[in-house]
Amino acid sequence: MSDSDGKKTLGLRGGARPGNVKQSFSHGRTKNVVVETKRKRVVVPKPGAGKAGAGGSPVGDPSKRPAGITDAEMDRRLRAVQAAKARESEEAAAREAEEKARAEDRERRRAEQEEKEREEKEREEALKAKAEEEAAKVREAAAAAEAAAAAPSEPAVARTPNNKAAPAQAPRKTERDREETNKKNRGNDNRRSGKLTVNQALTGGEGGRQRSMAAMKRKQERARQKAMGGSVEREKVVRDVQLPEAIVVSELANRMAERVGEVVKALMNNGMMVTQNETIDADTAELIIEEFGHKVVRVSDSDVEDVIKEVIDDPKDLVGRPPVITIMGHVDHGKTSLLDAIRNAKVVAGEAGGITQHIGAYQVTTENGAVLSFLDTPGHAAFTSMRSRGAQVTDIVVLVVAADDAVMPQTIEAINHAKAAKVPMIVAINKIDKPAANPDKVRTDLLQHEVIVEKLSGDVQDVEVSATTGQGLDQLLEAIALQAEILELKANPDRAAVGAVIEAQLDVGRGPVATVLIQNGTLRQGDIFVVGEQYGKVRALINDQGERVKEAGPSVPVEVLGLNGTPEAGDVLNVTSTEAQAREIASYREKAAKDKRAAAGAATTLEQLMANAKADEDVSELPILVKADVQGSAEAIVQAMEKIGNDEVRVRVLHSGVGAITETDVGLAEASGAPIMGFNVRANASARNTANQKGVEIRYYSVIYDLVDDVKAAASGLLSNEIKENFIGYATIKEVFKVTGVGKVAGCLVTEGVARRSAGVRLLRDNVVIHEGTLKTLKRFKDEVPEVQSGQECGMAFENYDDIRPDDVIEIFEREEVTRTLS
User: Fold this and answer.
1) Considering only CA atoms, which of 523, 536, 574, 578 is closest in space to residue 309?
2) Which DSSP state fits 156?
3) Helix (H, G, I), strand (E, B) or coil at 512
4) What angle do CA 580, 584, 585 make, to 5 degrees?
5) What is the pLDDT of residue 811?
6) In sequence order, which residues have a C-beta less than 8 Å from that of residue 685 and are 6 or more positions away?
7) Is pLDDT at 718 greater than 70 in this prediction?
8) Residues 324, 375 contacting (CB under 8 angstroms)
9) Taking residues 14-33, what's their average pLDDT?
10) CA torsion, points 313, 315, 317, 320, in degrees to nearest 10?
């Protein structure tokens, strides 16, 4: 650049040049901005500039070299450039070789895939050609058959209305051709027709439900078999089907291993419109079984019990078990007191009148560690059948005889039961501490009944004991242990449980409850069992201490919960594998029992009926209804009632049952004009109201003597003054308090009538009597009062009884003597 004088001035070639740029802002505003633009300097080497260094000379032209660079530095830079170029060329060669190998591998796999597909296609074409050839043969055979069947004359030629021969029509497609055409039109629904991608597998093809690979393979196999000239059907399995007199449709299908829908369809084709839950007879079921190609094995109804037949155990599986000892003897000879002394418990206080009303089952562990299972049977004559059941399940009988009373009638019965059961006997001469005790007289009296004790050179052990002082208890336990050792009692705990029902009752809170003595095997929680005409699943097991246990082995008494009904005392419990078996066995037993009762009622000739009717004219009947707390008590009462009467009068038990008195019982009593005898049970509120309205008499008893004597006196007409109970009030326990020096005090609300200090009281729990006695105290706030009216609160304490709980009901009554008359 030069000025006007022609002198050069300092400047830049190609310096900044002005330019305009349009800048945009928000809301559509724009602005022109003047900017400077600069050119990038481009250095173009002159020809021959790099020749000096090309030959490897580090010197070159110093004038061309950048300033400050030495010859050594220049040489090092040139070598680095050459090494980088060599490395790049080697990497490029390696990449090229790798790419070439990959291409060859892809080509090889593609060729293998094409070869495989070509082989598959050739195989399918061969199968298809063979199938077409077979189809052609079939069509030719069919055409030949039609030609042979046609008349020998030439077939008529179809003509048009102009009497001209119409062109020959194409042959009609067979069903097989139409199926093949439809398959071609639908497309090949084969999962091998192409590669299955992950997307197809996840989305199910075109969005519909995709069939499984197993289903596709089955379809391919069917298509292959069809293409080869026919389908190979699955081999039919012929089964032996056990057929009872009646069977449910679903069970029939299960035994044949056929689909329920197919069996129902076959029944409908035979004119029976049934569902899978309906029952069909054996003849119809036999037709269906034969239609499906199976064999019929007719079985009787009793064969259902074959699953619980006794199994003979392997001697290697047997282990020692505790002995089961039954305490027998006359009433009030001290059987339960003796067992109390062994158990260190107080059971007699819980029984009404100090008399055992039920069979008690307990386990006792001696000081030597031996476990003994005791059954305490009642001694009264009314409980003969209960003692009989006790003897049937026992191993050793301990015959208790009072030293001051000697042999009595029930003692003789106990001896007979022990002999009938063929079990060893041990004589315990009790009450040896009394002044009037004479054990030698007891031993002498036993001789009359062929019971010879060891002291008289016999083989029956005898021990002198006292339940009060504890004298001789150790010797008694030693005698029991010795007798058990001689018996060598063993059982198999690893098999299905078998047990005997000692007692059964209907508990309001827990449902049917059975006291079972396990005789063999182990009963576990969750086992399915059948007992008599009832069945169930073990919901809970409770031992003699009131504790829940998971299992019970041989010789262990437990309460079993989970029955569908109350069994009979004496029934045998058997564990089954399935609930269906248990239900079937229980149903058969129930039906057999009904048939037996019906047959017993029908097995009477016309002459017998007329004779009975004539005899009934002279015999007066006293009908009664009996409700008891447990099955054994109800059975004992019924047997006692059957023995009451003579030629002029007799007692007829219309109905006996277990549990609280209900409206149904009141209705039956009203229709027959019978009183209701409640033994340790009470009527619920609705039943009480109904009985008051309809004038039905309900009598409550807690001692069997009183009930038997009452009925006997009423039936015989020897009516003396009786003690009648008048219920004057009811109270409900709200809270229980513990007071020092007094014991437990019940905070009560009088709900009906009045509570009197002088009246008798009973404690009811779930309408069952658990205590009867007198009041120790009756307080209103802090004051002792003679009576408390309905709707008021008060405090009550029982004499010698502390087992009170909230929601228990207290029944207040007064006794009075009235003169009885026969209605």
Assistant:
1) 574
2) P
3) strand
4) 120
5) 92
6) none
7) no
8) yes
9) 72
10) 110
Q: How many residues does the chain have?
A: 823
SS3 for 277-313, per residue? CCEEEHHHHHHHHHHCCCEEEECCHHHHHHHHCCCCC
CA dihedral (821, 633, 727, 761) positive or negative: positive
Collapsing DSSP to helix, strand or coil, 364 comes out as strand
Say if CB 379 and CB 727 are below 8 A apart. no
pLDDT band with cut points at 50, 70 and 90 for residue 349:
very low
Question: Phi and psi (nearest 5°) for 328?
Answer: -125, 160
Q: What CA–CA distance (Å, rounded) separates 658 from 569?
A: 12
As a whole number, mean pLDDT of residues 103-131 equals: 87
CB atoms within 10 A of CB 394: 26
CA distance 659 to 706: 20
Give CA torsion, residues 111, 112, 116, 122, to 10 deg. Answer: 40
First CA to last CA across the chain, in angstroms?
Answer: 157
Which residue is associated with the tokens 């002044």? 435
Instruction: Determine the average pLDDT of the residues in 428-446.
Output: 85
Nearest-angstrom CA–CA distance, 440 and 444: 6
Output the DSSP codes for 727-738. EEEEEEEEEEEE
Quick one: 230 exposed, middle or buried, by C-beta within 10 A (0-12, 13-18, 19+)?
A: exposed
Pick the closest to residue 562 from 521, 616, 607, 524 (CA basis): 524
Going by the DSSP 8-state scheme, the letter that residue 542 receives in this structure is E
Residues 6+ apart with CB under 8 A from 660: 508, 627, 681, 682, 683, 684, 687, 766, 767, 768
The whole-angstrom separation of Cα 233 and Cα 226 is: 11
DSSP per residue over 73-137, as a string? Answer: HHHHHHHHHHHHHHHHHHHHHHHHHHHHHHHHHHHHHHHHHHHHHHHHHHHHHHHHHHHHHHHHH
Can you tell me the mean pLDDT for 114-127?
A: 87
Query: What distance in Å separates the CA atoms of residue 321 and residue 499, rounded to the nearest whole number?
Result: 14
Q: What is the pLDDT of residues 747-783, one digit of tens each?
A: 999 999 999 888 889 999 988 889 888 888 898 988 8
**What are the tokens at 365?**
């562990």
Reported as a single tens digit per residue, the pLDDT across 121-136 is 888 888 888 888 888 8
Q: Say which DSSP state 682 is in.
A: -
Q: For position 384, what pLDDT does the model report? A: 54
Which residue in the block uniquely carries the two structure tokens 């069977």?
Answer: 247
* Mean pLDDT of the region 795-815: 88
Instruction: Copy the structure tokens of residue 532.
Output: 């008599």
The conformational region for residue 20 under phi > 0 = left, psi -120 to 50 = alpha, else beta, is beta
pTM of the model: 0.49
Cβ within 8 Å of residue 713, ≥6 positions away: 719, 720, 722
- Tell me how far apart the alpha carbons of residues 365 and 343 are, in angstroms, rounded to a whole number: 9
- Cβ neighbour number for residue 654 with a 10 Å cutoff: 16
Q: How far, rounded to the nearest angstrom, does the alpha carbon of residue 425 sit from its chain's CA centroid?
A: 42
